[in-house]
Amino acid sequence: MVIVNYVIMCMVFGTTFLAIKIGVDAGAPPFFSAGVRFVLAGLLLFIWMVWKKRASVSLLLHKEMWLTGIGLTFGTFSMLYWAEQYVNSGTAAILSATGPIMILLLQAAVLRERVAGKAMFGCLIGFAGVILLVLPQVSIKAGMFWLLGCMAILIGQLFYSAGALYSKKVIQRFADTSPVALNAAQMMCGGAMLIVLSMFTERVHMDSMLTPEAIGSLLYLIVMGSMVGHTIFYWLVAKTNPLFPSTWLYISPVIAMVMGKILYNEAISSFMAAGAVATILGIMFVNTKSRRPDSEKGMYRGHSGVTEITRRQ
């Protein structure tokens, strides 16, 4: 079940960079559209969880939901949405692939955990593969806003990495609450902060939100990108560890390449093929090592409680 959910998550997340770009290019305010996306997606999931009696409204009052929302939703997507005004989706995918590497570095530098050399080597191979895969297709104009956009995505990945690590502790702390409900709560909290940010920084014209491109982008990102993709991500964090689900960032450029070939008959160059092979090899190195501590050795405290949660999903 872990592998099936991982594949679904990769397929969903592999299309979200383009969906965000379509909405932003259609004129949707980045912070506002991101906030609406996560508030609505989180609200629908949370109502369902409350109806199923797997969550209570009081969950939204816990500081852990807001802290997780800052990392996984507010910090990550405020940076990404803003940056995609100036950076194309291919470049965004490359820069977002630094997430798993940052997780390993945070584990080593902040949490003082020993990181296996094999896992670090796999991350480096995977990141090199992403560059080989996407770089030949990217036209880079190194203007000021392009550089700021690149820096913003990297800052967002720091938020993402910290949020992914912190979410593991939150899942264990709220062992009697479904990870789906925890994910819904953090999306609502992060989305609310995005809307507040929009109120102070953007002028929202509803006409720009009502174009077919903006509506289609928003609906796809709400249902598939947030409700489906992020729920599976949170489930995988509970079932394995923060690093394993994060390797979807290496898969997304591969998915884009395959879809381009099938739907638009785009050529696949030798650089792209080499990048795809290197990416998959890197993920194999990372995943072989990263799944073992939780599944075999019980590295994290409260692992048995997390297993019980995921078994009930």
Automatic annotation (TrEMBL):
Keywords: Cell membrane, Membrane, Transmembrane, Transmembrane helix. It comes from the Bacteria. SUPFAM superfamilies: Multidrug resistance efflux transporter EmrE. It is a multi-pass membrane protein. InterPro entries: AA-Vitamin_Transporters, EamA_dom, EmrE-like. The chain crosses the membrane at residues 7-24, 30-51, 63-83, 89-107, 119-138, 144-166, 178-197, 217-236, 248-264, 270-287. Belongs to the EamA transporter family. This is EamA family transporter. It comes from Paenibacillus apiarius.
